[in-house]
Amino acid sequence: MTKIFLKGHRVMLDQPKMKELPFEVTEELKRAMIEEEMRKYVRLQIYAVGDEVKDFTPGMAVYVSPTNLAMAEVIDLDGDLKILVRAMDIAFIWQDDIEEATIIK
């Protein structure tokens, strides 16, 4: 397994697995399908945080807007796809991952 040391205010998220297609697709179509799937991502798990990130830790479930996800880098890390975003792109942490949460009614 590749070890990484993430720098700055970056956060690396696990990309949920896409269902396998029974046929080959072009790289362009594959990227379009990934972008479409990203619009459905509402709860993403943090894989790693940069050395300057203080508010988030690996394992937390977070929300990042589809607009920010569309601009994010997707990185292949030993066969697992990861999404690289800025810490400021994270809108909120799902409340079951923190002790004191602000509950919106």
Indicate the topology.
Layout lengths: L9 E5 L12 H12 L5 E6 L11 E4 L1 H6 L1 E5 L2 E7 L3 E4 L12
Antiparallel strand pairs: 1-2, 1-5, 2-3, 3-6, 4-5
Domain count: 1
Would you identify the regions where 5 or more consecutive residues have pLDDT less than 50?
Answer: none
Q: What is the name of the CATH topology?
A: 10 Kd Chaperonin, Protein Cpn10, Chain O
How many beta-strand elements? 6
Strand order of the largest sheet: 4-5-1-2-3-6
What is the CATH class designation?
Mainly Beta
The first-to-last residue Cα distance is 43 Å
State the helix count: 2
Shape descriptor reads globular
Strand content: 25-35%
CATH architecture: Roll
